[in-house]
Structure formats: C-alpha cells, structure tokens
What we know:
Blueprint: H1 8-21, H2 23-34, H3 43-51, H4 58-85, H5 90-119, H6 132-144, H7 153-177, H8 186-207, H9 209-221, H10 225-236, H11 245-269
Helix pairs in contact: 1-4, 1-11, 2-3, 2-11, 4-5, 5-6, 5-7, 7-8, 7-9, 8-11
Amino acid sequence: xxxxxxxxxxxxxxxxxxxxxxxxxxxxxxxxxxxxxxxxxxxxxxxxxxxxxxxxxxxxxxxxxxxxxxxxxxxxxxxxxxxxxxxxxxxxxxxxxxxxxxxxxxxxxxxxxxxxxxxxxxxxxxxxxxxxxxxxxxxxxxxxxxxxxxxxxxxxxxxxxxxxxxxxxxxxxxxxxxxxxxxxxxxxxxxxxxxxxxxxxxxxxxxxxxxxxxxxxxxxxxxxxxxxxxxxxxxxxxxxxxxxxxxxxxxxxxxxxxxxxxxxxxxxxxxx
Length: 272
C-alpha cells in the first residue's frame, strides 16, 4: 500500500466497495461452515443457492465489514509507519498494530457477526422480521443472557487477528521483496499491486479456516471453544478443519485482496 499518511477515506471506500461486492460469497461461506442445509443436489447448485437472496442482515454485515477492514488496514499502516520511525523492525511493525486493531474490531463486531450468521439459517423465523439483527440480538439476550452475544469471541479473535496479521505481513514483505517497478509503467504497477493483494488475501483465508468453523459451530451449540473442537474431532475426525474451505477462501480472500488493491488504486486516483 501507499504511505500511511493517506486519507482514511480511501481505506473506507475500498473496504465498502469490497464488502458490498462480495457479500453473496460471505453468505455462502457462512452457510457452508455452519453446516446449514440448503436446497440443491450437486456442489455448485448448493453453492449458488446459498448465494441467492434473501440476503438477511446484509446491511449490518456490509457495514461491519466496511468499518472493521478499513480500521484494520489503516490502523496497521499508520501503526507500522510509526513503529518503524521509532526504530522497530519490519516484522514487529507489521504484526503488532494489525493484531491490536483486529482484536478491537472483532470484539466490537462480535454480537453483529453472531446475529448475522445465525440469520443465514434458511429455516430461521427471526429472519422474517423487519429488523432481523435486532430481533436476533434481543432473542439471544433474553434466552441465553447478554454474555451470549460474545459467544465464540475467543475463536473469532484467534481467527480474525492472525488472518489480517498474515495479510498485512505478507503485504508489507512482498512490497519489499518484489522487484521495483517504474511508477510510470501503469501495467507493471497494477500487476505488482495485484500480486501482493491476492497472495495476502489467500494466505490469510486458508490459514484461519478451521477457526471460522469453530466459531460458527459455537454459535449453534453454545459450547466452549475446546469442547467444540474436541466434539467435532470425535465426530468427524480431521474433516471439520476443511469444512467450507472451498467457499471460505474465496469469500475471505477476495474482499481482503480487493480492499488492499482498491486502496492502492484510490490513493493514486485521488492523489492521496
């Protein structure tokens, strides 16, 4: 990415476009990892069925993804630049800011993440409400207690923080490792930016898929993280580690890569 002195608006714009464009992929991944049943016979028929409307809780998901990704990438770039100025190395400067901002963003978003994922169950009656996320949050608080809104936060943090930390570290290191390109060669600049963005997005998504599965399963069962992992291992062996990975690596990698790439483009286009 460009220097961190750029306006946060470029990060917010890139994150918003990516969240809006890839919401159907997120929906399909959430259904697959949660084990919800959808109509269809083959893999692709079920995949496209899962992507189709109704898009329950879409505004909450898109809004939450937009501010969270923008905060993580902007905070990481600003924090990384500051730490380098203080004499810290590239590794520490790339990991610490992204880790801290990711934990904060996930903690704030967790109730909305839980409600949105539970609404993707095709048989969920609360999804028919005018404000389905609010209805689900009230239902959870009333039936399971206020603390239940943060069920799965441990797995979510263990998933989200490394995912973005991995993406940021790869983004920063690849920017140093790849051969310099002529700033006037627009094609070369675009290709370098695309290579960095795609590699960072895919690595972050694939490495953290098992924790996505654990978090979503905890939403359904109210189990603790270790208990949940033990049960799934007993029932399914190692297969649960890869549940929904075909959908998830696309659903997660695409918006992360898109956010990184578009942020760079927006900075160029708007002269930030």
